[in-house]
Amino acid sequence: MISFIIFAFFVGGLFWLSWFLGRRNSSESGFFVAGGQIHWFVNGIALTGGYLSAASFLGICGMISFSGFDGFLYSIGFLSGWVVALFVVAEPLRRLGKYTFADALESRFNSRKIHLAAGISTLVICICYLVPQMVGAGVLIEPLLGLPHHWGVILVGGVVIMIVASAGMSSTTYVQFIKAGMLITFSLVLVIAILVRGFDTEPEQVNIYGQNKPATGTRTLLLDADKTWPERLKKTPYTFTAELPDPAEPAVRWIRLDDQQPEKTAPKQSWWRMTRSGTDKLTLQRAQFIINKPDGTRIINGDEKGSLAQLAAMGRILRFGTNSAHSGRREPVGFFKMLRLFADPETLVELPRKTTLRYKGQSITLIYGKRVAGNELMRPGGHFKIGKESPWGRVNFISLMIALFFGTAALPHVLIRYYTVKDSTAARKSTITAISAIGLFYILTLFLGLGAIGNGVLNPLSDNMSAPLLARSFGNLLFAIISALAFATVLGTVSGLIVAASGAVANDLMDKFFKRNMEGRKKVIAAKTTAVTVGILAVILGIVFKGLNVGFLVGLAFAVAASANFPAIIMVLFWKKTTPQGIVASILTGTAVSLGLILMGPELFQLYGYSKADAWVPLGQPAIIAMPLSFLTLIAVSLFTGKKTAPAE
Amino acid sequence: MNDSTPYQGEATPELLFKKRLGLALCGLYALAYCGFVFLAVHDVTLMDTVMLFGLNLAAFYGLGLIVLALVLAMIYSVACNRRENAASTERRNG
After folding, report:
1. How does residue A256 score in pLDDT terms, banded at 50, 70 and 90?
2. Which of A31, A326, A509, A567 could disulfide-link to A630, CB 3.0 to 4.6 Å?
3. CA-CA distance, A458 to A464, in Å (whole number)?
4. Averaged pLDDT of chain A
5. What pLDDT does residue A262 have?
6. CA neighbor of A45 nearest in space, from A191, A185, A179, A160
7. Residue in A with minimal Cα distance to B18
8. Nearest C-alpha neighbor of A250 from the set A227, A217, A229, A274
9. What would you report as the CA-atom Rg of chain A, rounded to the nearest whole angstrom?
């Protein structure tokens, strides 16, 4: 109940703020850039609020808690991108533009086609960025209000459309400002709570809703390899029923055992992950299971009603390394000691993993704990297989780092914030404020992700909920506040994206390209119509993309931005031979190639229902190909067309 | 929406100073960033090396990149503010 009250208070407050600010500012300039008169500090924190999206809070913390240091790579990359934004892009772009970055690109030329290309790329990037925000919203609503995922997405879509349509950039700015301040404050509170509580090897056993329910528990059997199944299980209460191969790991077999003496809390049917230990022993590790029957019903850990409350939360420290000098008892730890503790090669942690099998016409999802040494957890390679033989893991890693480094400075909802302040000096100060606030927050993500592992709160079905579930382990009040803030995070980012998309359609496409000669009120009405349309599209895509990590999805949006917009921005600022034709060709090439590679890549093929190996393109991150191609296209087309038409300086 | 410094004035001394300083700092940071990526791809086990405060290289370098971004941003801010103030004083004095 308290969760709902706090949540309702937050959303109600945001609505009031939008209405209050919307009354004061209804002009064209007011809608798109809040009159260009936002104070640089407010703008800087609002930049932070727009940038710290669901990906930063839910996605990064979730990925760290499931894959270790690879999640923190996103934190490093997301912040590093601001260096390019501050040192290279912010001030010159502010001096060139008016409402959108297309205005800046077009300022040296008189080309309608630049507005067309930039409008299209802005729309594509905004939609790519909107999808993970909507997925994050759906994930949050499920445990908070007990509503299904799609209702969460629809709720966010509805609220944001109303906020943006009411006042545009003014309300968006203050929503982002308040949300960023509170998000950083409460994340810091949560990190301090983690450090004060400390860690041990037996975190409280809870289900995925944070309730104290009897869980399946962990159990391991060590059996003789050279005996038959009845002989192996002689001293146990189990009988052998089936043995199935693991679809991904040839060395692993899945065993179904039936319990001869079922207890009230123990499921009759049980599934075990079998691996060979040495030459003569077999290790069976008990797994949680979800059986999806053809008739649509499901069994979870033996529960015929299929309630998700039967699913135990996972993640824990199995052993503390001696190098970190931890006593093994719960006691406060310092910032550095916590990192040393998790990075110790002797430390052993258990992370949730899952696989899906077909058995007797049923789909069975098996959830088990993967044991990872501390040094492996705390170095790159948990998600991107950079240490393995396959070169694609390394290529994906490099490609992601390129996308994050160059993508930030080309994101439409970041760029638009350079026009909400009065001059280029204020744009610079805003960016520095944003870097400081964002940097602090990203350092906290590492502690939040690792804290979620050590406190055993991971939902094995979704890594996106790690941070809110960690908060729940400290009580419902903190959970409600963190969840409401996460929801506000989604609202703030989505608002900024929809304003940017609205500007692209109303200003770049309808006014500048189609020459509708829209001024003032007409342009604002067109933008509000776009806000509603883009919002509805984002809701639909948010429902379709359920289940993917939001950090990963945002990484793809960065790749599109780095490929489509960044080459054009840099070349128009630093290469005098750039022509409008070169800019248009570069933007369209970058957009098409990056989007094409994503759609043909392994992650999306998995979403289509195929395996990753079936993907037409083995590359999961497109920037390494799409961005250089976009640069080359701009140079080639500019050199070719420059001979015919000299650019107007 | 009034910007007193038009883009065409890119050749003014303070704008040139800011442009060069920005590119230099960005280049410096890019080198540090590339170093991190190179180390990870070249031999990921190097990231286990214990550094200052007992942190492994991955955490030390990763957190270091975040702190470096903050430090460079401050340097840029202070340098630009000084240059702009000096330029406006010069303009006032004729």
Report:
1. very high
2. A567
3. 9
4. 81
5. 55
6. A179
7. A87
8. A274
9. 26
Per DSSP bridges, beta strands A362-373 and A348-359 are antiparallel
Residue of A nearest to B6 (CA): A95
Residue A428 contacts residue A418 (beta carbons within 8 Å): no
Which residues fall within 8 angstroms of residue A93, CB to CB, at 6 or more apart? A101, A104, A415, A418, A427, A569, A573
State pLDDT tens for residues A559-583: 899 999 899 988 888 888 888 899 9
Are A579 and A614 contacting, i.e. CB atoms less than 8 angstroms apart? Answer: no
Structure tokens at B49: 């090396």
Task: Please tell me which of the candidates A94, A336, A442 has its beta carbon nearest to residue B54.
Answer: A336
- The whole-number pLDDT of residue A587 equals 92
- What is A550-578 written as a DSSP string? HHHHHHHHHHHHHHHTHHHHHHHHH-TT-
Distance CA A648, CA A635 (A): 17
Sign (positive or negative) of CA dihedral A9, A12, A18, A24: negative
Q: Which residues of A touch B77 (CB under 8 A)?
A: 428-429, 432
Pick the closest to residue A49 from A176, A160, A190, A135 (CA basis).
A176
Taking residue A250's Cβ as centre, other Cβ atoms within 10 Å add up to 8
Q: Per the structure block, which two tokens stand in for A319?
A: 């052993």
Structure tokens at A151: 């209702």
Report the 10 Å Cβ neighbour count for A241: 14
Which residues of chain A neighbour B30 with C-beta distances below 8 Å? 83, 405
Which segments within A360-507 are labelled E, that is strand? 362-373
What's the mean pLDDT in A346-371? Answer: 88
Residue B42 C-alpha, separation from nearest chain A C-alpha, in angstroms: 9
Q: How far is A373 from chain B (nearest CA, A)?
A: 11
Report the pLDDT value the prediction gives residue A85, as an integer from 0 to 100. 81
Q: Two tokens at A489?
A: 């995070």
Average confidence score pLDDT of chain B: 82
Phi and psi at residue A312, in whole multiples of 5°?
Answer: -80, 140
Distance (Å, whole) CA A579 – CA A582: 5
**DSSP, res A314:** B
Report the C-alpha gap between A170 and A161 in whole angstroms: 14
Look at residue A94 in the predicted model and tell me its pLDDT: 72
H/E stretch holding A439 reads: helix A424-454
Smallest CA–CA distance, residue B41 to chain A, in Å, is: 6
Q: Is there a contact between A411 and A561 (Cβ–Cβ < 8 Å)?
A: yes
pTM for this predicted structure:
0.83
> Which DSSP string do the residues of A256-310 spell out, in sequence order?
EEEESS--SSS-SEEEEEEEEETTTEEEEEEEEEEEE-TTS-EEETTBTT--GGG
The ipTM value here is 0.85
Per-residue pLDDT at B8 exceeds 60: no
Size of interface A-B (CB pairs under 8 A): 148
Residue numbers in B near A68 (CB within 8 A)? none
C-alpha closest to that of A411 among A57, A166, A56: A56
Encoding tokens for residue A177?
A: 């400002």
Q: B37 vs A35, which has greater pLDDT?
A: B37
Instruction: Kindly tell me if the per-residue pLDDT of B78 is higher than 50.
Output: yes
Name every residue whose Cβ is closer than 8 Å to that of residue B7 and which is 6 or more positions away in sequence. Answer: A92, A95, A96, A107
